[in-house]
Amino acid sequence: MIRPAIRLAILGGILVALTLAGLSLHTPGAGTIGSPRSQIELVILLCASGLVYFAAVAAVLLWRVRAVWLVLLVAAAMRLPLIVSPPFLSSDLFRYVWDGRVQAAGINPYRYIPDDPALAALRDAAIYPHINRADYAPTIYPPAAQVIFAAVGRVWSSVTGLKLAMAGFEALTVVCLLGLLKAARLPAERVLIYAWNPLPVWAFAGNGHVDAAVCGFVALALLLRVRRLNGWAGVALGAAVLTKFLPAAIAPVLWSRRGGWRLAVAAVATVLGLYALYSSAGWRVFGFLGGYSAEEGLDNGSGIWLLKGLAAVFPLPAMAPKLYLAVLALLLAGMGCWFAFVRRPDNAVAVCSAAGATVAVLMAGIGPHYPWYFAWLAVPGAVAPSPAVLWLATAPVLMYLATYSDGILWPDVVFLPAILLAFWRPSAAFPKEMT
Fold it and tell me: Counting C-beta atoms within 10 Å of the first and last residue's C-beta, which end of the chain has fewer, N or C?
């Protein structure tokens, strides 16, 4: 009979092989993967990786496996080839490098669009031609993200430099998750639930998305909250919010009766302090937020999965998007009040379970069609794994097919099973934290 550690090693080896196979599909020199066929083949490989990943998750949840170094070694082996390869599933990384370069030149990144003649001296053939929305959109990335871009821009202004920075935030995520698992008295091997997930691997190591920093700051905030370092937890939360705004939804989960006000004051002070760094841009410090909302169809409902599906069946009133978003906001506010003042999660599993549920509702509610937006679900999912959260943290690899604008098939495949899984209660054969 094969020992559990050997079985896990076999699964890890398969994941590394699938990652290398996916990387081999890229046409050298192409800004994208190279062809629609290659993109489909890559998504097939990502789906296969997802199945192997779920088998590995089941292994660490159901078997007694002592192999944390194996888990970390496989996680590194999956990422290293992607880090040293060019991004080809998204061009966002080039905007990060550009924003860092602008700041290294002593210019506020919110002041000019990349196409502005004032920045002509900073243009080159390696970065500038690949910047998306260069001729009309100011940067959308909030101040905490800009601080990261600025730091990289002053140390190593390159695609690889930013990928390594995101790898550093992934390392922070793993360290914090190991701390949370220790606090919960759970096996350290369960860090695999984040570290082997193919979505973060390809989103962060492969394409350097700043969401890796979101994962790091959120994991740090959760760990500090569990250790009752509420003020520092607030600082980490503020940094997470000003990296991508969405982590504001977990603020009520971090609230506690004794230290809640310290957390809130620290978070607000962090947000205000980070905005102050870029205040010379005036109101332009909010960047492309308004334009992005319209561009992504959040204002008219065309970019919201559920509304788009309903509109395909019957016409919706003009007020439907605003009404939908208001209901979603009320739902999240209700969940926040429940966790902050009624249930009051306190231990590591309870806090992460509440965070996972809140983030899952948020992400299913707004239904973004960019896969990397979902990667941070794997952070609370590593400590408090639930079927719905793990599905939403993995299945969005299907969205790399980029068919969202052509229909609702793939979003349906992502969101409908998640909704069904939210009502599924695993049998007694599963760990109690999955119930």
Answer: N
